[in-house]
Design a protein that fits this description.
The structure is a homodimer of 153-residue chains. Chain A is an all-alpha fold and 153 residues long. Helices cover 71% and strands 0% of the residues of chain A. The first copy, chain A, has one domain: Four Helix Bundle (Hemerythrin (Met), subunit A). In chain A, helix 3 runs antiparallel to helix 4.
Chain lengths: 153, 153
């Protein structure tokens, strides 16, 4: 597990550097990061539905693996300069502080990565009660970042 | 590998049933499936950049794992009735035939799943030449579906 997380954090740094060189357009970066969050959101909603209804172990595993894979995929690279505000008709709800408070953002990102990877691990056991508890922890890390760095609706 | 693919196909059926019950809104289904494709597209572009520039094994692994996880996540559930056309301001480029030619779509989806899982397997070896070949195969399965079932720009 630590290896995975270390890789993810390393990749975040690495991809950040790589993408600065390739000059990903800010409007594309916003769309890509929103797509990652949206797909994780759908995956979370599927796990929630399983916890509230009939529990399908395989569906929960696939959803949890998807969340972990996206969490590990280096989304930090999608916060390129110029993507801190709406650009070319593409809206973002990120607060500008997200780009300056690197230590705080790093902590939140690491917590999210850790909990997402742990959710994938727990899902593989098929223990619905443990998944429920861990699902709550993942949701907590989502909320923590939204509270601090996402503009309210 | 076969187990993974079988699971993915099974999950596609299972989640399809589960979500019909939950009545996922067509406009949300379109947004979620587009987010999945967009995030895979970003992941593909990262692998391409690695193949054309400096090859970073870990970045390619994370991107390939993301594509495989999304491919395995049961996107079939996102093609709910009512999502075959633009709805509530949300546009889709899917052709209506996608919803009726189930056998053809199933074949394309299975081919994509197989090649995406194989890409994740090959990426783990760090063999850039093999990744390049397999990357081409994945791209081919994307294109095959786009050619038949996506409305041209």
């Amino acid at each position: 597990m630590m290896k995975k997380i270390t890789l993810a954090v390393a990749a975040l740094a690495v991809t950040g550097a790589a993408f600065a060189q390739q000059a990903l357009k800010p409007e594309d970066a916003i769309k890509y990061r929103q797509s990652g969050y949206a797909y994780m959101s759908w995956s979370m909603s599927k796990i929630k539905a399983n916890l509230e209804g009939t529990y399908d172990k395989e569906q929960v595993i696939l959803a949890a693996n998807t969340i972990a894979a996206i969490a590990n995929s280096g989304m930090g690279a999608l916060y390129v300069p110029g993507s801190e505000k709406n650009v070319k008709g593409v809206k973002t709800r990120v607060k500008p502080e997200f780009f300056t408070k690197q230590q705080e953002v790093g902590k939140l990102a690491l917590a999210f990565n850790q909990e997402a990877n742990e959710l994938a691990r727990v899902a593989a056991t098929g223990d619905a009660a443990a998944v429920k508890a861990q699902f709550g922890k993942v949701g907590g890390t989502c909320k923590a970042c939204h509270d601090d760095f996402r503009i309210k609706d």
